Request: fold
Amino acid sequence: MENYFNNKNLLNLVWKWKVHLIVIAIIAGIISVVFSSPNFIKPKFKSMAIAYPVNLGEYSEESYTEQMLEILNSGDIRDMLIEEYKLDEHYKIDKSYKYYLTAMIGKYSDNVSFRKTENEAVRVEVLDTDPEVASNMVSSLIHFYNEKVSALHRIKHQEVFDVYIEQLKKGFRNLDSLAAEINSFGEQYGILEFYGEQTAEASRALYKNNTVKRESAEKFLENLAGKGYEYKKLKDQYDGLLKSLVEIEVLQAATRSELDKEITYSQIVTPPFPADKKSSPKRSVIVLMSVFLTMILAIIIIGVIENRTYSSAGPATKE
Reply:
């Protein structure tokens, strides 16, 4: 059979069967044209958008673009799009089907794609039989991405905000406790916040002839000697804690602002629009490939037929 597939014999074979091969090519072309028509293969339209990620926080060592791709490829985004557009019905996949999830994810992956551009932006593409739906799906994907990032940031800021709330609650309880102790020094020992001025006043009273004032001053100075250091320590703790709580309140207010902030996390540089020309199938490619493969198969079959004819006839013998 090898004799029929060297260059010379192959050309002879094609020339011998040229009429048959032309007919086969025409029939293959007609069949491929028919079966690649919209009646058999619904045309798909591509819609796309290009967006830059913005206002993202730091997550490990990923770039903003990589973060955006990770979030767009998340199951949450996929499920939101499936639910929003009822893609199980749109793709005609029955939910009772045993392998529904595998089929749904596979169909989604065939029609929805995300990739990084050369300039670190993200390209969002959707294929669909309805150009309007394809365009709307691209817009929805970017919208769902913004919602997802916003939710992630809100969770993070809410956790920090709750920590500040607890710190403030605990801090103010401790502040009240310290204030009560400090006040007890005034009630029991007469030591007040401005005890420096009290000390000066008591010292002046010692040099006066007023016996009552002298006794009061001596008692105050005696209390101050015994309890002054403890009072000063409590007062320093109180002032330090108060300052710390003021700082926490400032941080809490900033976190509250982040929680209430409504911002976008993508900057669209190329918005989506409904395509006016189909993206697939490429009928010319289908027809050419069909004809080419049919011709290859036809030549192989003809070669097999010719080889059997040659073998059964046997080589010519000389007389």
The chain is about 70% helix and 10% strand. The beta strands are 45-53, 112-116, 122-128, 266-270. The chain has a mean pLDDT of 80. The radius of gyration is 43 Å.
